[in-house]
Amino acid sequence: MRPSGELCVWLVLQCDAAAAVGRLPTGLVLEERLPEPTTPDQPNRPTSPTQLADVWDRCRQLGLVDRCARVPARPATDEQLLTCHSAEHVEMWRQRDQAAFCRAALAAGSAIELTDQILEGKLQNGFVMVGPTEPDPAADRAFYEDDRVLVFSTHRLEGAGSPRQPADGDFDAAGAGQGAGFTWNVPLDGAAGDAELLAVWHRLLLPAAYEFAPDLVVVSAGFGAALGNPKVGMRVTPACFGHLTHALLALAAGRLETTILDVMCAHHSVFRCFSHLETFSAADAAAAAEMPDCHWPSAGRLPDAALPAGLGTGSEAEPEAGAQDHGELLNRLLLAPPTPTPAHRVYLATDRQMLRHRNTSDPQHPERPERLTAVMSRLADWGLDGRCHRPAEPRRVSEDQLLAVHEPAHLAAMADTAGQPADELDRQAERYDSVYLAPDSYDCALLAAGCVVEAVDSVLSGEGGAAACVVRPPGHHAEPHTPHGFCLFNNVAVAARHACRAHGLSRVLVVDWDVHHGNGIQHMFYEDRDVLYLSLHRHDHGFFFPMSDDGDHDRVGEGAGRGFNVNVPWNRARMAGAEYLAAFLAVVLPVAYQFAPELVFVSAGFDAARGDPLGGYGVAPEVYGHLTHHLAALAGGRLVVALEGGYNLTSVAYSMAMCVRALLGDPLDAVRRLVRERHAAAAGPAEPSSQTELDGQTEGLSHTERAAAGSEEPGDTGGEEPEAAGGEELGATGGSAPGEELVAGATAAAAAAAAESATIAECLLLQQELDGMYAVIPLPGCPHLSTVCELPAAGIDASEPCCECGDLQENWVCLTCYQVCCGRYRACHMLDHGAVSGHCMVLSLADLSVWCYVCEAYVHHERLIAAKRSAHRSKFGVDMPV
Asked: Above 90 in pLDDT, residue 766?
């Protein structure tokens, strides 16, 4: 295993720079002395200073005003107003209604003042409570030809009788000139409510916003769509507006001031996140009828009879409510007590005693004690551990709590390992799959599960708002009857069952983003509807650990649990942050919001992080912070993040620290390195994926990682696998988009200084961050070199076809039996050969690289030179250079 210090220098410096930015105050501009309206012909206008006073009073009742930094209101100058409005327009309003003009100028000037203070680093975000003023439909066109401002509007639009005319607010009013594609209109019908607004956020706004990568987010916070508004008739609850705001706080480092398919199509040529969409003609529709087994997009609504019991689509989810029904619901909302504030924002559960679990025969085993110390050191360096509540003495899990998910024989077998000699433990471990045992492993496993159970009690009792559990050994592979995959007891499963039994919960969500499928958690709750298990993992058509079809998308649960097991299996190389964000927005969050959990767990493995030796993916640490932030909106913030895998010490430490920062409410680092330069996307949409529907969803969001790794299949370059040897995933990191900064000047200067003294490997890593270069540093050796046999007398024929299918592209030769088969990006016959024969060392006939299936890494060693020379001579007709 390569030392973790070889993780990209640039990445580490950017994370450190982000961690140095603490959360600033929230600003509030509140002006209580407003001139009364003087328009005599509108006595019943829906907006008035009295209405605003009600908002002020409610904020004071909830104690919100005292928690904000007050910013004085000021009117905008004529010069500032004229940047967006004509002189005639300004003068017209000044003469027509002096009071209205004063309010509007005060609101505009206050917004400018608040924006200045946010961008100057004095405030984190803020709210302007000055006005109210009537909306001006023409204002949406102020940036209609400007690509520097993305305007996104959701509004009611039902023809001439609605507040806006269709020409201004319909979905195809999408900008012009340089601003084409940068104005978004999402017209909604009068029945729209929480579900519709959340769908718009998850399917449209957030994917586009992540790609746009804003420096500042400004919200025109009108609440006309709120439940009970007689003029609009929509039914969005107050809580929903909080969720929408929370999602926007993930953007721009927290600087925040019906027709979905149509809107996607209107913007898919500019924003790559929608480039998987295609347009279809009548001929295509006819073809769809002839090929019923293919997936074809359809813009329609399912009848309620076609839905599972208890589910609805959009407005049919609830009966149409009349004014009386709206009033009753509003009264219930007003009478509901506010959510109590927890004593501590984050509960941190860990214990150094878990360092005793170690592999004495292989100190460099991936699951080693340094993982825990690396995480805790990073939390201390960033000052995060001191901001969390730590228990005085972590407790061990009880036998009854373990027996809720594990069989008695399994507990007895693990208990028998306590204090046994090392040689006996090694013999016992050989009976299990990928498990080692030490004299103290049993006690460490009790502590690990106990920490997560104790975190649940803390969060549900109100002691902690959320919890972070830095524990080992991990747990999500442990089965009811046996340890498995570095895991002894299933920590999260034990705690989830405890939450249901001890606290009476009936809706517990487990999100597992470890790169490996959590087979143990799935099996424990496969027939249970109280726990919804949702896993994003590398699958490789069942050829990635734990080497089973159980992680495929069609494993959805059985019996009462049918539909409560959701797998997002990745079958492609080099998945990274953009794909994970896409899956969250397209699958995880919609499912989670409908499930409405009472408690959320994260099986937080970080072996999909960049540089991990086992995962081979490229998720940046700050992405995990964003995923945590979005999950924290669920269950009233009751979120328990428990460490699972992650075996590069640097990446696991930084990734877990980013999650803790998100739990603490710190501003999130922008994920600009995930996105391509947006103007380049206008040249044409990306190739649609031919895989699954979700692969298509994420193909357009691949952005910089896909650009760095190359859009071709790895087989085109001879690469059988994406992993960089020794734990460095070099191909997935990507460079910055043209014209976009990766970090501010101080961080860039630090990165340049670090590069001057960097090793060759570090320089390669830094260079590929800057230029999008893709490089692989192979292992200098591996334990399976002994399986390489002598060359056959005839040598290697580099033009030989696959012995199974005759394919001539992307073929590999087995270095044990010298059989030639095609790779995973053709018909997978070499994978089949390896699975059946156990032969693990193969040589690419495309680029002469050698791959070890067991180590999951490229290898270069003197023992391989003879085979490489033979293949080189056959392929090029000359000897390989020395």
From this structure: no
